Amino acid sequence: MKDIRIALLDMNNNHVNQGFRNIKEISEAFQQSSEENVIIQTFEVRFKNEMPNIDDFDIFISSGGPGNPHREGLEWEDRYSGFLDAVLEHNQYNEDKKYLFLICHSFQLASIHWKLGNICKRRSYSFGVMPVHKTEEGEQEFLFKNLQDPFYAVDSRAYQFIEPDMDRFDELGMKIMAIEKSRPHINLERAVMAVRFSDEIFGTQFHPEADPQGMIENLKDEKNKTAMIENFGMEKYLETVDRIDDENKIILTRAQILPRFLQSAKKNILKGSEALA
What confidence tens digit (pLDDT) does each residue in 90-110 have? Predict the structure, then answer.
């Protein structure tokens, strides 16, 4: 029986982070529920310049993280760009596919790397439980299958992806799967919230891994609490705190997107290894 090998790319640069704890929990739950032998290894990409060799793994989950997604001349940046290209290229020329999920900071890095649009600083830091709207393509996306439109997800970002270059998307065969809430009365571009980069590579600007416990921990951080109250007002802040445990909001999003990604990747990996046998 084939082992399923998962690499978790920690992009937090040694900052304490609820999201990475969540990613590990979801991966370990998948490991425990699988009949196959699932091996999980963590790589400290920004802090220790560690990078998985793509030949050694089947599935990669690359986390969110703090700071500027644009290049700052650091050694890991070239290695990460090479990693993104290597996964995409491997899948174009090989039967055994590699699966990659990109979250928040990693999603921004990939969108910059593939020149998909304008990734710029927001006017203010965004933090909270936000509605995410599916695009027409997103309506067909199997990772979103059991989620309503809009569905709710944790948003935590200082940067945003706006003004997508649709010619570039078409050229690369990539598709926008979700966008920020529509606010026609406010003259601001709606941010891109999810992209299907290829059959095997998916990314979200939001945090599909977030759980209520992590959200409550994050709200103990004055920066997050202030960002929420400044963006939405005290009433909305209290409403969000009230909604954290709602079964149809972040709990549902967490139960669907990453677990579905892992299950689907496993199914295809096992099917592929049988075909190659």
Answer: 999 999 999 999 999 999 999
C-alpha span between 110 and 216 (Å, rounded): 29
Cis peptide preceding 212, ω within 30 of 0: no
Quote the tokens at residue 150. 């809009």
Instruction: Give the pairing of strands 192-196 and 38-44.
Output: unpaired
DSSP 174-186: -EEEEEPPP-TTS
pTM recorded for the entire structure? 0.95
Could you tell me where the beta strands, DSSP code E, fall in the chain? 4-10, 38-44, 59-62, 99-103, 118-134, 151-162, 175-179, 192-196, 201-204
Residue length of the chain: 277
Pair of tokens at residue 109: 């890095």
Contacts of 257 (CB under 8 A, 6+ apart): 143, 144, 147, 204, 208
C-alpha–C-alpha distance, residues 60 and 188, integer Å: 34
